[in-house]
Amino acid sequence: MSPVLEVRGVTKAFADGTGVRRVLAGLDLDLHAGEVVALRGPSGSGKTTLLNLVAGLIPLDGGTMRLRVAEGVLDLHAMDPAALTRVRRAHMGYVFQFFNLVPTLTVRENVLLPLELNRRWELRARALERLEALGLGDRADAFPDVLSGGERQRVAIARALAHAPALVLADEPTGNLDADNAGRVAHLLWQQVRESGSALLVATHDPEIAARADRTVEIGGAAREAP
Amino acid sequence: MRLLVVSQLRFLRQAPWSAATVVLGVALGVASVVAVHLISVQVQRSLDEATPPHLGGLTHVIEHPGLNAERYFQLREQWRREADSPVTALVPLIEGHLALEAQRLLVVGADWLAFPAQAGRGPVVARVPVEVLVGEAVLVDAETGYAEGESLRLGGRTFTVAGVRDTGLGPAVLADIAAAHALLGRPPDTVSRVGAAVTDPWAWWRHWIDRLMPGFAAGLPRPPVRPLAELMPATAALANALAKPVTAERPSAEFARSVLFNLGALGTLALLVAWFLIHQMGVIWLRRQHLLLSRLHVMGVSRAGLRRAFLSLFVILGTVATAAGVAAGVALAAALVRLSSEGAATPPAAPAVVAHVDVWVLLKALASGLGVCLLGGYGAFQREWSGRSEPSRWRWLALPALAGLVALGIGWEGSGVLGGFLAIFAMSVGTAALVTPALAALRRAVPRLRLGLLGRLALREVVWYPRVLSVALAALTLAVATAVGIGLMVESFRLDFARMLESRLDGDLYVSDVAGALPALTSWLRAQPAVTGIRPSGRARVRLQGEPVELGYARFDAAESARYGYTRPLAAGEALISERLARSLDVQPGDTVAAAQGSVAVVGTFPGFGDALGRVLVDAGTVPRFGLTPRFDRLTVDLEAGSAVAAEMARRFPDVQVESRSEIRSRALEIFDRTFAITRALTLLALAVAVVGIYNAQSALKLQQAGTRRLLHAQGLSAGEARGLALLHAAAVGGVAVALALPLGLAMAWTLCQVINPRSFGWTVGLHLTWQAWLVPPLSGLAAALAAGALPAPREREAGHEAA
Predict the structure, then answer these.
(1) What SS3 state is found at B537?
(2) Which of B86, B88, B92, B89 has its CA nearest to residue B67?
(3) Among B464, B711, B717, whose Cβ lies nearest the Cβ of A99?
(4) Most buried one in A28, A62, B409, B719, CB count within 10 A?
(5) pLDDT digit string (tens) for A45-61?
(6) How far is B445 from B306, CA to CA, in rounded Å?
(7) ipTM, 2 decimals?
């Protein structure tokens, strides 16, 4: 079976004032539909950088990235920022560690945000069912500032999956939660992703969370080069 | 403390854009104040120079029907006996008219020797030594056409013109009282009124207030007419005599000072808006430094120490802004003087404006610039660091107090122009105070609105963060409301003024200065087949109930009366008076007023827009009641269409001044528009400061919302949609400001038309809701908010975070 995401020889470096920090050097990665892959590594190893590269939020220095969707295979490495934005909007979901929700939108509106952006109203009922399934049905009209950390992450999960994306990216989705909540949120995330048939690439520090994944990819430390 | 200040200065270096906008906003506010001050000083000085010589140094004029030389001397004797009398001079005056060739001259006689001597120089009147004036020498008004040193033949005597002054009295001769008696053919014991100089315990304050705020006194309630007994308690000689403030003798000067007061009030608007801007910026900076200041507080720095360090920022910015504001203000004053005098007969006096820059201007500018910065910064610090989580429980008293101030300022006529402006100020503060509750109400209502995603996000961001936006919104609201209010007032006034011109200018040609040529001209006009009507008229400066007024007379048939909105011909003894005069004399139709030789019945009033002097109109047959013989010096000529009479008349009678109806109309409207050029410029300036404020607030909100923007970007919000969101957000800001500004602007316009105008100038302006005034300022406000939203926010976030 062809992978949903195919990453080959990806490199990325940042100038940090004192030199160039090579974060990713020739990384390869395949991710299949319904698969959950955990990215592990120390702080600064490039986990978030890889997620941002896949999402097209930062430009790639080298290598290729391909995303297989219903319409065909998309060469992410060859796309301009506008095209990447369209791909991200239509085919990806993103869960962050902090600041996951738009504070001026209600829980329901946050969940329906990808549907509004993609004009895919046919998925509305399913998205709201997922909200119920995540135990947030009675919080649908609340604004994020009154939610607990765990509730916010559950809303973020519902939003990330609302438009049935091919790929879900999650950056330390439980990093901000206590152990009980972290386990519960991780369970829900895994469960919802599997039910939806999406692929999940999750960056995490937490070995317990990583242990729940189908596969773990270790990312090494960054190398510093002279400017 | 030094390190704290250094840390603040470094913060300033990290926030160069916002610091620059603060300097710009305050500099514009200071420039507005400086420009109005300089213009006012120039006008005030010219008014002072134009003080009629016989009133120089006097504070009151004493009037009594039985006044004569004997009573004057009794009064003087009594004054001399009172050791502690507040009166420092008493000057007998007489007044009358005299024919000189084609002119009717006002002759004023004064006992020049009775004027107080100037230190070491002896008495001097209008820069002419009194010993010259008591001889065969006179002072004349410039309108007489005589030059200094020329000889003037009057009543069989020859006088030398010792000085020519612009007195505002029209064609007038000012002579020694003995000469005036002879010229007017009055018995030597005649005294028309007595001028008095009375010590004013508030003189010192008045003097300094006038130096700081030229024209301010015109905004205060008019000083009352007092019984003479209050000044000289043991007055037996003139029981029941009245002492009128000398300002009543110079209504045109009072008129000009009222204009200055109005300008002064408007000039402070930009500064008030700048205060909002400073306050807003202070809140934003404090939020950026919150972590740093909190840590310092934990380390033991007192709140007062933090406040001093924070305010040091504003001292620096205020000083820089003041320097820039003074320079800009001088340039603005010169430009405004040029603007308002464009096309005028007199050349612009812009260089003279620069000459008025003195220590007072600099002090005022510094107080304005530094004051607004420190007050704004202090207010922001108190708001963010007062340690009080609950708003003051007394805040609910503020709105009723403001409402009371509005009611008092509008309802109590005695509060004068100042009361009217205080009412406007209270309305503005009240509306500004309503911004936060309005945002809170909107916050509750917004979730129910069915809007698209971007619309919802934009509107909610406006109502969600009142602390960031409310002050800037209040400033924009105030500026837009003022633009609406002033715009509506000016447009309404222009409409009423144009209507008045339409009604008054019913002739085809208006001929003046014809006294010498009148018989010949009239005969010639009568012989012209194209002339369908000739209406002679005349004017004279007379007194009505003791007040100087302009008397206009003609054959007042029904058609002539209709020009002034009265339906019947004026019978003998009937008069129409201007609205200004009616207010000044406190009379209304049906009342009778005293003239020089009898009385006249007031049968109606008419608007006299632009008249600096009260006007009274009578049929020519009523003129003798004013002690005059009718002398016609103007003609209104009706012509058949397409007639060439005007050109032929100008050729045959070159000394006659002829103007067509359209010429007069367009000249009048041009003068009207020039008059309000400064007003419009000052309103625009305030709007510019508000735009700077809204840009700052929107930039701060953009920085605060950067996380949301990144999140939306990650969700797939395109660059175009992000720009659309920014514009929708700006439109929502503008929309909220405009929604609040419209009712305030309407209330301001009503107050300006119905309260300020009558109290300042004596006329009421009908409020007309023209679409230009109603729509253009709100659209400008909306466009300004959109422009502020479309501009990129300065990249100061990292700097702010580093500081924290």
Answers:
(1) strand
(2) B92
(3) B711
(4) B409
(5) 889 999 999 999 899 99
(6) 39
(7) 0.84
